[in-house]
């Protein structure tokens, strides 16, 4: 699995790594038992500090998505299920992006909420046609 980071991005690098691994698990690109690149090798490939990758791996392990077996490596946990909190965090980041775009365009919160409501109505109409 290839990970990409944006050093100038809004999210800290370890969160970018976490998000991409979580998304890969949710999208079934990574499955329970799959071995991840060691944090040192991944850090070298991404040209970042090994502790940054370790922090991401440790947090994902705390969430139950990864498990580290001493001397063997880090693996996708057999219990790996993208948790609601991870999905909520992703949604919150998307909302932040939307609000940033709205504010930069001179719009306010009401305008952004109106756009979300309109999109929801359009999605509902599309679902009704299916």
Instruction: Count up the helices.
Output: 5
CATH topology of the largest domain: Arc Repressor Mutant, subunit A
| Secondary-structure element pattern, one letter each | HHHEEHH
- Report Rg: 18 Å
| Fraction of helical residues | 55-70%
Q: Biggest sheet: strands side by side, in what order?
A: 1-2
User: What's the CATH C level of the largest domain?
Assistant: Mainly Alpha
First-last Cα distance: 34 Å
Unreliable residue stretches: none
Structural class category: mainly alpha
What is the total number of structural domains? 2
Name the CATH architecture of the largest domain.
Orthogonal Bundle
Spell out the CATH superfamily of the largest domain.
Answer: Winged helix-like DNA-binding domain superfamily/Winged helix DNA-binding domain
- Note the main sheet: 2 strands, antiparallel
Describe the structure concisely for a colleague:
This protein is mainly alpha-helical and 130 residues long. The protein is built from 5 helices and 2 strands; from the N terminus they run αααββαα.
